[in-house]
């Protein structure tokens, strides 16, 4: 594992070290800990998904945390970087489990949050919806990758910083929910509520957004970080 050890009580130093390790992760590595077939299969999937998503949804679709996770994972598996696979794991494992639960509930006719309602809209091309099934297998792949490469403890700070920056972009620069959005990405990362058709009305918009800035890094990612630290091995120095 590259990068120096830093006190857990110094978030700035942790973030700086994590960024340095991300750069080091792009350097050539020796040996192979992940199957080549896995790397090729995942790359083939991304070679289809990225241009299709870009053509149908546009580039802003890649601001979604799940799509950012796909890209980080692509680089991470080729570089066999514990940090680059740990970041999406700590960042999206919990939300993706919720996605799977909501999808199964929608399938059974008992929606939970509405976050997967788009998967059942007949007006959306079936091929696009089938590509989105990656939400179902990506969390399992990430757990496997972290188990093989080790969980980098700095991933929580690195992903949290990235997530907060993206949330600000989505809230202040990206379009809010509207019923006629079609395939245009709106309400990216649910910064206006759980529905893409209308903003939530439980609280003021600023309060909802502020709650995301706390819940995403500290609750969702924080809890996942503690679990991964306990259950997954630490990266082995190479």
Automatic annotation (TrEMBL):
Q: Where are the transmembrane segments?
A: 36-56, 62-78, 126-149, 156-174, 205-228
Keywords attached to this Swiss-Prot or TrEMBL record, sorted alphabetically, are: Membrane, Transmembrane, Transmembrane helix
Domain of life, per the record?
A: Bacteria
Query: What name does this protein carry?
Result: Uncharacterized protein
Q: Which organism is it from?
A: Methylobacterium marchantiae
Q: What is the lineage of its organism?
A: Bacteria, Pseudomonadati, Pseudomonadota, Alphaproteobacteria, Hyphomicrobiales
């Amino acid at each position: 594992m590259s990068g120096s050890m830093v006190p857990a009580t110094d978030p700035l130093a942790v973030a700086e070290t994590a960024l340095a390790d991300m750069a080091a992760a792009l350097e050539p590595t020796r040996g192979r800990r992940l199957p080549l077939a896995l790397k090729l299969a995942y790359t083939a999937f991304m070679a289809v998904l990225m241009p299709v998503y870009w053509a149908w949804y546009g580039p802003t679709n890649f601001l979604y945390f799940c799509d950012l996770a796909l890209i980080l994972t692509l680089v991470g598996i080729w570089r066999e970087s514990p940090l680059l696979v740990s970041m999406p794991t700590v960042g999206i494992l919990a939300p993706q489990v919720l996605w799977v639960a909501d999808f199964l509930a929608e399938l059974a006719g008992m929606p939970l949050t509405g976050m997967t309602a788009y998967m059942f809209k007949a007006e959306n091309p079936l091929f696009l919806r089938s590509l989105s099934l990656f939400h179902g297998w990506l969390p399992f792949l990430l757990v496997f990758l972290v188990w093989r490469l080790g969980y980098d403890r700095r991933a929580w700070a690195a992903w949290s910083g990235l997530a907060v920056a993206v949330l600000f972009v989505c809230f202040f620069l990206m379009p809010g929910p509207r019923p006629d959005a079609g395939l245009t990405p709106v309400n990216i990362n649910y910064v206006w509520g759980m529905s893409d058709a209308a903003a939530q009305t439980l609280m003021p918009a600023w309060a909802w957004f502020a709650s995301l800035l706390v819940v995403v890094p500290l609750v969702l990612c924080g809890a996942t970080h503690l679990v991964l630290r306990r259950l997954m091995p630490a990266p082995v120095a190479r």
